[in-house]
Every structure is written in C-alpha cells, then in structure tokens.
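Why do we bother with a discrete structure alphabet at all? Because it lets us treat a fold like text: something you can write down, compare, and reason about line by line. To make this less abstract, here is a complete entry for Beta sliding clamp. Read it the way you would read a sentence in a foreign language you are learning: slowly, and without expecting to understand everything at once.
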Amino acid sequence: MKFVCSQGDLNTHLSIVSRAVPSRPNKPVLANILVKVDEDAQRITLTSFDETLGIQTSFSAHVEEGGMLTVPAKLLGDIVAKLPPEDLDFSQSNTEPVITLTCSAGEYQVRGMEATDYPNLPLVEDGQVASVSAESILEGLRGALFATSSDETKQVLTGVHVVAEPENLEFAATDGHRLAVVQSVDDSGMNLAIDVTVPGKALRELERLLQSYQGTEPISLRFDPTQVVFELGHQRITTRLLEGQYPNYRQLIPKQFERQLTIDRKQLMSALERIGVLADQRNNIVKLSIAGSAQTLALSVEAQEVGSGREEMSAQVTGEDLDIAFNVRYLLEGLRALPSPEVQLQCNSATSPAILTPVSGLQMTYLVMPVQIRS
C-alpha cells in the first residue's frame, strides 16, 4: 500500500467515520477503521462499524499501490488533525501491519491489524430500494429527531419512526412527554412502502452528512426487515432497525380544540428563553395564561425563595381564558424545530395535550403534554 492524499481530505473523512467507532469495542479490531486503497479508482475508502451502525466514506487520492489495513481510529485521527495542511505520504510495510506517514513535520509509524479480521458491513440485497431527495429527509430529521428518547430501556423510542408511501414520507418521534410528526412530500419519484423505526444515533450521523452534502442526486435507501442502508454520493450509512411495536401516535393527537392562539414564533422563543432562566432555578415549569378578551399571552414563573417573572405579549386568541403549564425546555425545542414566522398553539384544557404547528411551510405537528400545577 502506497498513496499520497491531502491532510484536509483525510482529516474530514476520518472525523466522519470516527463517529461509528465504539468507545468500548467487543473486539479489539472494532477500535480501528478499515482503510482500503484502490489503485484502479485512485480512491481511499474508510469504514467504521460498531456492530449496529456502520459508516463508509471515500475520497480521491494519488495511489501508487493498492492494499487494505485496519488502523487505530483515535490515534490516526489525533495525529492527522494536528499535522500541517499539506500532502501526506503513506506507505505500508511488506512484512507487518504497520503504516508509515511522512510529511514536512516528520515521520510517524502506526501499528494496525490485518484487514481480514474486520467484519463486513451488512448489505441489503433483497429488500426495497428507493431514491429520496436529500431535502425531504433533512426536513423530516430536523423536525423529529430532537423528540426521541434518550432512555435505553425504552429502546424503540430512541429511534424515529419512518412511514413511507409513494411520494409521501412521515417522520415521528416521541419520548413519552412530547411527540413530533413531520409529513414531507417527495417528488423525486419515490416508490416505497415502509413502516420502520430507525435508531436516532444513525439518523444524527445521516443529518450531519446531509447538511454538508453537495450532490444533486437523490439519496438511495435500501431496506429489508432488519437493516437499512443510506447511500449519498461516496458515503454510506448502514444500521440495524429497532425492533418492537412503535406506539400508535396518531391517536394521541386531538381532532378538535376549544382554544387557539397564533403568535410570533421568535417573540415567544425570546420570552421563554428569558423567563427560562428563572424556571431553571426551580423545576423548569413555565405557566402560560391565555386571555381571549385581552388577546394576550402571559408567561410566568414562580421560583420559591429565588424570585418570580412575568412577561406578556399580544396574540390572536379564540376561545375562553386558560392557565396551562409546560416544561420550558420542551416548548423551546419544539419552537426551534418549527420553521415558520408564526406558530399556532391549540389546546382544550390544562390537563390535555397541546399542539404547536407552523402557520405556513412545513407540515409539522408538535404535541406536548402539560404539567399540572396548583392554582
């Protein structure tokens, strides 16, 4: 193996694959990344795999001699990140799994392990295949991913439930306290019928890649009953699907509302961020007082032995007055994901779910459960 590549390219692609390197690997070789050097294609392919999530990425380089080797991910990543931005020269010993890196700063040798010890990334050969626009996927992930659960005991809630029908994609995520549902229309000719739950960790990596994706080609999706593969340009993410029945979230969303409020999203967010400083001191609870006659919304916090705060703003209100309380973080996270200048808050009572929706643009529903407060 012998090749020359730029420090910038190698550093970028090492940081992409490092995210699927397990911190406590079951096998020593999984702490490494697989480096495949292709002389015919003049490309370097890097692969990482934690036995659930796999990431593969490739970039062009000047290859004199092909080969394969696994090298310690963290060690190589840390060395390359600190090198000057220039071409780096790599060569492998003929007798042992050692790679030599030469640059103007000096020479480094890193001991790896044979590529034959590295597991193959799972493939989807007999499942469904579809092309989906990058915008549709990114839209769904931005609107739903934040609402997944971090509780590993509720495994299925740590993922995003994806339902696809021809030209329609639905992304849903809940942690039991709030629910985010995004409907995305895809006009890239997608013909897919799926109902699966994809791990949040894999989708965060996909979102990260999509944000820097420069290509115009749609994303290729391959599904079978246990696995999904996303392919975008020269990058691939593969992950095992989450098992278990996802909650029937559609039945949680009320069909009718007695109260409705339309308000400027940024104004509401700014007020919540300010009053949230006091809410953080106590229990993160903020009270919303909806006044139909005055056409106002008031936010208030009572933090015993710390202080209190109240802000009032104008809003378009229909329905009777109501006091309702929420976890301030849940409200803020939902508002950040809603992309329109104005949002609508709909609710029935102080103990039933409230719904936040954008007034224009993305078709998104954010349901949040209120917190009971003593009058």
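What the structure line is telling us, in plain words: The helical segments are 7-17, 73-81, 134-144, 200-211, 265-279, 328-337. The first helix runs from residue 7 to 17.
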